[in-house]
Structures are given as structure tokens and as C-alpha cells.
Task: structure prediction
Amino acid sequence: MSDPDEDTESTEHGGTSVAEYAVGGLGALLVLLLVAFLGYQALAVRESGPELAVEITAVRSVGTGYEVRLDVTNDGGTTAEAVHLGGELRRDGRQVEQASASIAYVPPESLREAVLVFTADPRDGDLAVGVEGYHPA
Result:
């Protein structure tokens, strides 16, 4: 067994172990990598504009109509603001109903959800949804 006075004495005289140096070096390396990554993300030039895609995720009956749930993704390099979505329900080649929704903004590499509301059942016909417009940020 070691003497408690001996342990205190070696710590007081700079008795840092190799394991402590290794853990300190690893921590410093992780901090440097994190700072480098954040700097790259902040300064990298994003050449592409917004690349928006709309996907229907669900259609369900609600009290007075039907909800069409949408996922809107932005795979581009910049934010799209004031995104306007539209949906058109057609039966036998004729337009039955239109619906629209807005999303405040869709940042790059993100997903936002929206809902279009129809009075007619969108499962009974051809439903087309998409982005009608947006403001580039």
C-alpha cells in the first residue's frame, strides 16, 4: 500500500500521469475539431438557392373536411422565406377544389410540415401539390 503523504508529495511536485496528458490532449483535439467545423459552416459559401420538395404524408378525415399532411424539405444551400404551397384536386380532368398553405421559412437541409384542408375527399381523384412561390433569403 502507498503512504498518503507520498501521494500528496508527488502531486505537489508535478506528478501528472501519462493518462491525464492523453485525456487532456484528446479534449483539446475535440475542441479544435468542433471550432474548425463551426467555422467552416459559418464561412462556407453556399452556391445553390433553395431546392424545395413537397411530399404527401397522410390524408385523414376531420370534422368538416379532409386534411392533407405535407412534408416540405429544402435540400438547397439557402433559406426559403414565405413559402406558399398549393394543392389542386381534379376528377375526370376537371378541377374540383384548390387549397393553399404558407410556411414562414424553410432553412437549408431541413424539413417543415404543413396541412392543406379540402372539403371534398382528396383520395377520390387526382391530387397535385407543390410550391407556388417563396422569397429567397
